[in-house]
Amino acid sequence: MFNSQDLIPLNAYLLIASILFCIGVWGLINSRNAVRVLMSIELMLNGVNINLMAFSSYIDGNIIRGQVFTVFVITVAAAEAAVGLAILLSLYRNRTTVDMESFNLLKW
Amino acid sequence: MPHTGNLLFLANQSMPVPEDLLNLSLNAKAILPEGFVLLALIGTLLVDLAGERTAKRWSPPLCYAGLGSALLVLSFQWNGIPESAFLGAFIVDNFSIAFRGVVALSTLISLLISWRYADQSGSPIGEYAAILLAATLGAMLLCGSTDLISVFISLETLSVASYLLAGYLKRDAKSSEAALKYLLVGSAAAAVFLYGASLLYGISGSTSLESIGIALQVSPKPLAALALVFILATVAFKIAAVPFHQWTPDVYEGSPTPVVAFLSVGSKAAGFALAVRLLVGCFSVFDVQWKLLFTVLAVLSMTLGNVVALAQTSMKRMLAYSSIGQAGFVMIGLVCGTEEGYAAMILYMAAYLFMNLGAFACIILFSLRTGSDKIADYAGLYQKDPLITLGLSLCLLSLGGIPPMIGFFGKIYLFFAGWADGQYLLVIVGLVTSVVSIYYYISVIKMMVVKEPQEASELVKAYPLIQWNSVGMPTLRFALLTCLFATAIGGVLSNPLFKWANNAVAGTPIFQEALAFASNQGSLG
Amino acid sequence: MTISTSTELICFLILSSVIVSGALGVVLIENIVYSAFLLGGVFMSVAGLYLLLNASFVAAAQVLVYVGAVNVLILFAIMLVNKQEELKPIKGLKIRRFFSGCVCAGLLALLFRVDITTNWATPGPKAIGEIATERIGEHLFTDYLLPFELASVLLLMAMIGAIVLARRDVISIELESKDSIPQNIIKNSTDNVLLDQSSD
Fold first, then answer.
1. What is the ipTM of this complex?
2. Identity of the residue in B85, B131, B154 whose CB atom sits nearest the CB atom of C160
3. How many CB atoms lie within 10 A of CB B84?
């Protein structure tokens, strides 16, 4: 079993995680398609997961609470995606559009 | 290999030493109230399998039984020795019991006022009750969670259930739209919370709030500040503090009204419990910083919430902004960080439960009879329906803080605690915005009472005969009268309530630690 | 540098470049179907990173749940709500995108600066590698029992709620279909059934 600590620094993983998180934030703000907004949220959650997994392996190597945390995040993300798409479907039946700019029955 | 694995597992610093661990029981009786709620949830789902008619007949009693026994068990747990359960994932102290009680009671009253609404809107009742109970379960567990993972999962149970409830009127485009907005903003807030949580995990190598609090004492400032900002954003989202409030008016206006009643009290109480667990329990080292941020949030919430409420024409939207302002008042208690401050916060939350749910019961009753929630449509209601007029007037006056209603005593206690602690800015802003809020509350009452019969709105002129015998109406009346009674009499009986709130603070370890910490710093400085 | 370490480095570089470019594709490409497939690619590469971190169980969960469930769900949603619609142009969209891009870049700089200035407690205890799966199981039934049980309630509730919201109202469909079918057919069939029963 090789040990990854020697070669790749922890910060490399954290950098990837924060890039993924920020791309997710940008997508969240700018996407006009509601499905794409959901995808951006998944990107943010994946960024968080990489953070947790990296900490789990570098700092908490023998107890790995971060891995358990990640398993929970994956579970919740799946539930959230299912609920999100159900709501989207129910809205689409009423409005036949997924454009975020046209959801303005309620003022922001 | 498994043997050494176990040893390593036990040798972790945040958990007790091995021999202690062997003696530790799960202490599962700590979540007995939640167990009853869960049983009611499963029971509701089972009777729902037998068809819509059976569900209509049996879901309400099952829910009452579950929530009622949960409240009963909570009252037995009151003033017990604070003890941790589930190996450090949950704690039973008086604070958690008080807030779990508020959540369970708000669900109970929301259910009482929702049967008629669900019946008229033609939504399936069994699933509605089950989802609302799941939200309650999440909110109750959130009040006592002391571990990042349980905090996250209970927060998400509450949030996902709230998204579903917000979109429950699926034939109504407004409801679906509210649900979608709530879901997108809420999931983004959850992701931000998780990023903060992952940083906290990185600092401490642990997920227990207690060890994170210890690790934060020696942690580098920038990292802790970043985690604090991320976590605070989520807390502010949950309690709808400005500038994280944008979702509130939309969700309140679009969602089914009984759901809004639950969101405005139960979900908000859970949000405050989360704030206390994370900020008081975990970030106690950074209390100057988070109190500063919270002061800003409180001032913004009180000002913007109460000023924008002036311009609203929809009753639900007005109450949404008013609830933003009310959250600002409650935050004063949290910022004080004194014994009186915490007690005032708990007391005001309990008072807010009755007055807000009473107001929502009146709004539901009015919209059931006329199908409108425009403020202008309430004109001249006094002649046609004295009960709604009386109820709404009492609750709104109480929300505005007029004596001798319960809201007045709650507010006085909050402002007094704030003044004693030297939070002059907060108290002055609170007083000024209270006056503003009284203005818009009174204008609704004026609309109902003062107008001559010929000035009444068309809807009020065509007001139906008052009948209480259709499905769900008696429970609605019961809930309305209970809330009214508590709002009106609670002010007179405020002394036992003060004692109760003080007890809640005295029986809560994290408050005591925070107070001891503050007095230590005071003596050092 | 041995073969194993250089392989690891190369794997890391490839995976991270796939993640970053894939994520950019997800938010930037116009065609949303391509975005969904790129998202699947990002999920797979993240699973690859987990493997590099010696977490085979979580990597498998990532592939099964994210790629197998979430991504497929998103593709289904795209097909269900797929309508060619002309988005109304909005004034100042470019400027808005540019400014939000600047804000996100600032956030990234902040996050990364905090990450590198912090002295993480590395190296921590030695990673346990292959017995991680066993350890996760131990956690789920000891100190994380409460969230584990609550997660089951969450999933149950999400399932029920998603079904309630996404299903069409059964009653209204029946009414519609009855309207569309010529009335005499139904009448005849019910009459026959009734006749059969009465003759028996």
1. 0.94
2. B131
3. 20
